[in-house]
Amino acid sequence: MTHSPPSSGQATDAAPATTTVPDGADRPAASLAPLGPVRSWLAVAAVGLGVFAFTTTEMVPIGLLPAMSRDLHVSEGTVGLSVTLYGAIAGLFAPVLTVATRRVDRRLLLLLVLVVFVAGNAFTALSSSYTVLMVSRLLTGFAHGVMWSIAASIAIRLVPPDRAVRATAVVFSGISIASVVGVPLGTFIGGLSGWRAAFWVIAGAGVAILAAAAFLLPTLAPRAVVRLAELPRLLRDGNLRIATLVTAAMVVGHFAAYTYVAPFLEQDAGIPSDWVSALLLLYGVAGVAGNFAGGAAAARALRATTLTCILLLAAAVIALVVNGRWHPGTVVLLLVWGIAYTALPVCLQTLVFASAPQAPEAATSLYICAFNISIALGALIGGWFVDTSGPSAVMFLGAGFSMLAALLMTRYRVARPDQP
Hints:
By secondary structure, the protein is an all-alpha fold.
């Protein structure tokens, strides 16, 4: 059973699945995608695998930089632009491309995005020069922005309304699993058979995901059509504006600190260098657990869960500095950081849905824009702090931005239970 969305930009402190159904408000999910329960969740898993594949291909060059640099005869920093510009393109063009494709059936759009993904990775593997590499990476980056904008809104149309947050968690688990499995595996394949082989494997995985999506997903007519000129109007909604600002502050803070966590662990926490990769792997494993735990908690109390995760992250980062060189404490606090942070994308995406149920994909495109730009901004600011003040200072910087996000989150308005 669904209810009308809260008035005056308010949202109940629960997942939108229990209050409104984005992309088809006040209609049961079964009417949008008449699938059996097993096929519905397999379809959601296929979308999650798409997110996994895109996240893997975005980040895998980090582990292949030396080999790519030697083969293409450019510096490692120059090759690193294939990651930085990829993310910038995905973020900046997500709103434009989401609006431009607003009338395309969402199943067809997902399949087209996956076709571009396969082609982009194949061209990357075939790159004969740095220029060809960058063209192929930017092509994939355009598709990445659209994928992020539509993935969660597709997933929640495939399941009953009371399972919407769980479906969102499954989709975003692709990010955590890519960090734990996809990127290390791609790096391993690159070391074993060359960096091009890693991109061929990713392209092959894209073909399999494309086939699964084509078989499992039903036709999904576009809903809540929004024009480009209307995007700024969405931000007039107080809750959506708060959700976007919380995202920006949170992501800047996290990436300012996490980008430079390795030097902090080695220099300030006294962790041996050969332990760092193992600790970061544990961080990723904890993140998978945090993703699903955050989704379950957000389904019951959205604002409270989001605020708790933000404060938990800030506390863990500060405590890492205060903890000094006590290694057991460092390990525990790093795991807490991983759980808290990876729960947040599910919470933040659900906040966006709850804030703009009439235009979930357009609102998500603004969220993705803020998210990706904030990644670059966080790494940039964090780099300046590391160079001028050291790794511990950047941890405090990250915690400071997290506290700002928590303060902003207190302004998110929750409707009273008796409100319509």
